Amino acid sequence: MSHPSVTSSAVSETLPVGTVLATQANFYQVQLDPEGNWPKPSLLCTRRTRLKKIGQQVMVGDRVTVEEPDWEGERGAIAEVLPRRTELDRPPVANADCVLLVFAIEEPSLDPLQLSRFLVKAESTQLEVELCLNKSDLVTDAERHQWRDRLQNWGYNPHFMSVLTGAGLEELQHHLRDRITILAGPSGVGKSSTINRLIPSANLRVARVSGKLGRGRHTTRHVELFELPSGGLLADTPGFNQPEFDCTPAELGQCFPEIRQRLDSDRCQFSDCLHREEPNCAVRGDWERYEHYLNFLEEAIARQEALLQLGDRESTLKVKTTRDGRRYYEPKLASKKYRRVSRRRQHQNLQDLCEEFDEL
Ligand code: GDP
Ligand code: ZN
């Protein structure tokens, strides 16, 4: 059967469209849409010079068109990046739909404050947030129900599962279908076990992509989308697993469903209310995570003040943020030599500060 892509008119009329699954240096692994019936399921691509010229970055999750496909060599060139529906900086992922937070109910036991931190961090992406509670084999029905009721009051409907017994895995697969999901959670809760279970070792594609693109799978900045045999793409992002959020005090409230809900039906007297001691506040009240909110707010305020103070003291410096989220200061106008020394010194200062926050 002759293939559409080998007839010249078809090639010029329809370029293959696909999704970037992995990036490394200047190469992009593009999975072609299966509807195109292309001779190969994926191509290793470079980026067209004209994209470089206009500063068009290509991210994991990007939808792209591919020019000049070399089907034999499985190579091509990215001609165009289609408009993004969503865009995350850290981790760098385009078109993600959902953050899936995985926690264990036991071993390690669920720590409400830690869970809250992860939830706030996840909410700050403004993507849909789903909560999955693993190791449900270790607790009784009664305990599960208790957690469910408690978390529903937080505004979440937790999905219980056990990678060990397989309970709840089918629903999870169903939920992951046809979308890009970012997997996050502390270590030891069963994230790797979940991935291994969802992507059986028989699925060699994952290994092949990593092999082709070389090292770096486990570095913080490296993101890769795993194709689930049951449909959907999953990003396992070590960089996300630090629950340090950098919301401003004013943004923090939007990261709590309880606060969003309260502000939907009522409003505070002051539009810039931080929901502490202000009169006629619609948010302050007797709800479980209000204490968490106040804790995180103190942190956010302290962080902001520290940054401002540093900024004042070194008013010749400007704040910059690295891709993995650390802030550092850089002289506004300075020689390269000065810049390098100064950056290191400032970075050190900030690291000290961050450690102080962590101890709060
Ligand atoms: P990660 O650090 O989040 O990737 O967690 P791992 O996948 O490495 O799992 C940590 C430990 O929890 C391992 O010893 C797993 O065997 C165990 N584990 C994972 N899922 C379950 C589960 O559903 N039930 C129980 N009892 N143990 C599990
Ligand atoms: Zn208020």
Mean pLDDT: 82
Output the number of helix runs. 11
Q: What order do the SSEs take from the amino end to the carboxyl end, as H and E?
A: HEEEHEEEEEHEHEHEHHEEHHHEEH
Going across the major beta sheet, what is the strand order?
A: 10-9-8-11-13-12
Heteromolecules bound: guanosine-5'-diphosphate, zinc ion
- Give a quick account of the main beta sheet: strands, pairing sense, barrel closure: 6 strands, mixed
Number of strands: 15
What percent strand? 15-25%
**Terminal-residue CA separation:** 67 Å
**Number of domains as seen in the coordinates:** 3
CATH topology of the largest domain: Rossmann fold
Estimated structural class? alpha/beta
Quaternary form:
single chain
The helical percent reads 25-40%
CATH class of the largest domain: Alpha Beta
Radius of gyration over all CA atoms, rounded: 23 Å
Q: What is the global morphology?
A: globular
User: Mind telling me the CATH superfamily name of the largest domain?
Assistant: P-loop containing nucleotide triphosphate hydrolases
- Which stretches are low in confidence, meaning pLDDT under 50 for 5 or more residues running? 1-12, 202-220, 333-360
Overview features:
OB fold (Dihydrolipoamide Acetyltransferase, E2P); Rossmann fold; Ribonucleotide Reductase Protein R1, domain 1; 3 domains; six-stranded mixed β-sheet; five-stranded mixed β-barrel; 11 helices; 34% helix; disordered N terminus; binds zinc ion
